[in-house]
Fold this sequence. Notes:
With 115 residues, this protein is mostly helical. It has helices at residues 8-20, 26-37, 43-55, 82-101, 109-112; strands at 59-63, 76-80. The longest helix is centred in the C-terminal third of the chain and has 20 residues, at 82-101.
Amino acid sequence: MKKFQLGEFEEIVMLTVGVLYKEAYGVSIKKEIETRLSRKVSVGALQSALKRLEQKGYLKSAPGDTSQERAGRPKLYFEITAEGKNALEYTRSTRNELWNSIPGLALDVKFALSV
């Protein structure tokens, strides 16, 4: 399997785009991350991550319809590409392999502290 590089925040952004599916645009992605993870997200950090993920080919964007409330500017909607799906699957697989390789006692606090 090809190696994919996804940072923690990039992974969170991509998963959130998947959760929101057809409603994944900047503001909705930001709100969803903040709600689900109780984590503040700056607009700049989110926009940088979205741009990076598009450059990597993991996300693609398309403008939506224009609206009066946005002064005629369309929302930019994001969706996961096939390459992005592969990156997420690789990341999940790698994490699962690592979790499954941890000996049971390694995460048992009463034994880990007595070393």
